Amino acid sequence: SKHKSEGSRGSFAVLGPSGSGRTSILARLLQTSEKVGLKSLSLKPDRAGIDAALKAMGNSDTVIFIDDLDKCTRDEIKQLASALEKDPDGALLVFSGRNSEEDISANSDVITSAPTACIGTLNPLTRTELIATLKQQGMTSGTAALIGRRFHAEFSGLPKPSMEQLHALIDAEWLIRRE
Q1: Which of 20, 80, 91, 142 is the most exposed place for a label (fewest CB within 10 A)?
Q2: Backbone φ, ψ for residue 105 (5° rounding)
């Protein structure tokens, strides 16, 4: 956010496989952007969203957020990339997209190859990281280690399905958070 308020432009990509937390990160960035007073637009990855982004691209005080940009057509993404290149003082585009071998769209390379792009890649958690996350969620060390190993094997280290399963177990009262 401070970076944008200093007049920078371009794009920031949050890439990762499904369930890696891309949407959560974009939501936090949007919240922070709004908190510091920047004009923030949260748009859908469809024709109407792209048109709104193109219209706002010339506003240097605007941060545009598009989750799952890889769902757009190659032409729509090329239009955004072109707008980013044409307007050196325009809006900042913050977007997410998938990057795994099996589900990456050939489209996301159009923007992420732009010289102004900054790319953050999310990777699955290691077993140790997942166990630490479960401890932060209120699980005891023994419980976190036990279910952490199971969740890591079951969900390949992806945080979203692991946390969904944790909350389902807590809601069903099969697990209790420590106070």
Answers
A1: 142
A2: -85, 145
Average pLDDT, the chain: 83
Which one-letter amino acid corresponds to residue 120? G
Six-digit token string for 33: 């952007």
Using an 8 Å Cβ cutoff, are 82 and 116 in contact? no
Tokens matching residue 170: 């807590």
Q: Which two tokens stand for residue 156?
A: 């390949």
Q: What's the Cα-to-Cα distance from 107 to each of 12, 85, 98, 99, 163, rounded to whole Å?
A: 16, 17, 11, 11, 30
Residue with tokens 């748009």: 43
Rounded Cα–Cα distance for residues 146 and 98 (Å): 30
Do 88 and 9 meet the contact criterion of CB atoms below 8 Å apart?
yes
21 contacts: CB under 8 Å, gap ≥ 6: 122, 159, 160
Q: What is the pLDDT of residues 119-143, one digit of tens each?
A: 777 888 999 999 999 999 999 999 9
- Strands of the 92-97 sheet, one edge to the other: 39-43, 62-66, 92-97, 10-15, 117-121
